[in-house]
């Protein structure tokens, strides 16, 4: 995994946080947490473009909190894709979230190495790898996913993988630094 990307866009300084900036975060953060300290460096960087933030965050919030996938499966998928995209920032920030939803250190190592012990995790990792290399999921992997997930869940899986690939590319490109 790439460990460092050059800083290109710094988080918006606190003295530049306007009502519009805070409003752009409302789909993800309550008003009392719409500040640089609570928002963290990713959101504090995204708010440099409030129109984009208004458009993007509801989708990201859906993927993170509301999709038909279980929180555990979402973490398996997003951790694999951010690892493949070399996004150390998202990888390290999601380790505590992954543990909170039941992933062990061994599970996390398996996701990183592409060899999870759990059969369902293994097919989710295969779906991530297919999408990342081929921009589609092979028929074999799609059918195997069908043993664990219904059509809505498989659709949410595709969008979770794509959504976090996009976020990883943005974080890497902007050079978002750890807090």
Please describe what this structure looks like.
- Helix content is 65%, strand content 0%.
- By secondary structure, the chain is an all-alpha fold.
- It folds into two domains: 14-65, no CATH class; 68-174, Up-down Bundle (AhpD-like), CATH 1.20.1290.
- α3 packs across α9 (151-174), α4 (71-84) packs antiparallel against α5 and α4 crosses α7 (119-134).
- The longest helix has 24 residues, at 151-174.
- The protein is elongated.
- The two termini are 19 Å apart.
Give keywords.
179 residues; mainly alpha; AhpD-like; 2 domains; 9 helices; 0% strand
Care to give the gist of this entry?
With 179 residues, the protein is mostly helical. Helix content is 65%, strand content 0%.
SSE succession: HHHHHHHHH
Overall geometry: elongated
Strand content: under 5%
Class of secondary structure makeup: mainly alpha
CATH superfamily name of the largest domain?
AhpD-like
End-to-end CA span: 19 Å
Q: Major β-sheet, in short?
A: none
Chain-averaged pLDDT: 96
CATH second-level architecture of the largest domain:
Up-down Bundle
Which SSEs are present, and which pair or pack?
Layout (H helix, E strand, L loop, with lengths): L18 H5 L12 H11 L3 H17 L4 H14 L3 H13 L4 H9 L5 H16 L4 H7 L5 H24 L5
Helix pairs in contact: 3-9, 4-5, 4-7, 4-9, 7-8, 7-9
């Amino acid at each position: 995994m790439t460990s460092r990307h050059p800083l290109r866009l710094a988080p918006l300084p606190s003295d530049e946080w306007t009502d519009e900036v805070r409003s752009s975060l409302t789909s993800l953060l309550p008003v009392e947490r719409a500040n640089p300290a609570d928002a963290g460096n990713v959101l504090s960087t995204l708010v440099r473009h409030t129109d984009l933030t208004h458009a993007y965050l509801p989708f990201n919030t859906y993927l993170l909190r509301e999709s038909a996938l279980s929180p555990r499966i979402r973490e398996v998928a997003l951790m694999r894709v951010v690892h493949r995209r070399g996004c150390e920032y998202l990888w390290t920030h999601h380790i505590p979230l992954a543990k909170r939803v039941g992933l062990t250190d061994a599970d996390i190592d398996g996701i990183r190495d592409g060899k999870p012990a759990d059969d369902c995790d293994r097919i989710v990792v295969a779906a991530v790898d297919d999408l990342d290399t081929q921009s589609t999921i092979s028929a074999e992997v799609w059918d195997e996913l069908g043993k664990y997930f219904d059509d809505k869940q498989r659709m949410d899986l595709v969008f979770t993988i794509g959504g976090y690939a996009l976020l990883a590319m943005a974080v890497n490109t902007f050079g978002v630094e750890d807090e």
